[in-house]
Amino acid sequence: MSCPLCAADLPLTNFAVDGGPEGASVAICATCSDQITGTPQPDHWRGLASAMWDENPAIQVLAVRMLKRLKTDWSQDLMDQVYLDEDTQAWVDNIAAESAHKDSNGVTLNAGDNVVLIKDLPVKGGGFTAKRGTAVRGISLVADNPAHIEGRVEGQRIVILTEFVKKK
């Protein structure tokens, strides 16, 4: 059986699809699962052109969610073609309303939260390293990328990967 999102012939595992019916899940490959929760590689997602038309609403929701996150010409073209029934569109909107930003432990992050760095992070262009244990207060969420937040460290506003923070 192949992954419904990317069509890869890899082992599949259940992935919970938030914002819809209780217990809704889709069997997808590990690569898709990792990229849904992390940083997507646009070339991996070419299969969304067919997944967005799947009969399973959970697959449609994941496809539209990824198309919205990808900022490529082809993904925007596909978004222009998407048609969803009212219930599925409401499900997509529920997902969009929930924060997909999660810390290293899977805890939901919200704008204004305080986090702590769990790893030393060299700041590109800043000329310093943000040390492990540094508190970042009043974070901002990067709207189009749930793997990124923004915060002030040593007086500079920087983008931080959510996988390197823990909510206080």
Number of folding domains? Answer: 2
The ordered H/E elements are EEHHHHHEEEEEEEE
Strand order of the largest sheet: 6-3-10
Number of strands: 10
- On the 0-100 scale, what is the average pLDDT? 89
Uncertain stretches: none
End-to-end gap: 42 Å
Largest sheet: 3 strands, antiparallel
What is the helix fraction of residues, given as a range?
Answer: 25-40%
What is the percentage of strand-forming residues? 15-25%
The number of helical segments is: 5
Outline: elongated
User: How would you classify the helix and strand content by structural class?
Assistant: alpha+beta
Round the Cα radius of gyration to an integer and report it: 17 Å
Descriptive account of the structure:
By secondary structure, this protein is an alpha+beta fold. Helices cover 27% and strands 23% of the residues. The chain has 5 helices and 10 strands, in the order ββαααααββββββββ. It has a 3-stranded antiparallel sheet, with no helix packed on it. The protein has a 3-stranded antiparallel sheet with strand order 7-8-9, with no helix packed on it. A two-stranded antiparallel sheet has the order 1-2. The mean pLDDT is 89.
Summarize the SSE layout with pairings:
Layout lengths: L11 E5 L8 E5 H8 L10 H4 L5 H13 L3 H9 L4 H12 L17 E3 L3 E3 L4 E3 L4 E2 L3 E2 L6 E6 L2 E6 L3 E3 L1
Antiparallel strand pairs: 1-2, 3-6, 3-10, 4-5, 7-8, 8-9
List keywords for this structure.
single chain; 168 residues; alpha+beta; SH3 type barrels; 2 domains; three-stranded antiparallel β-sheet; 5 helices; elongated
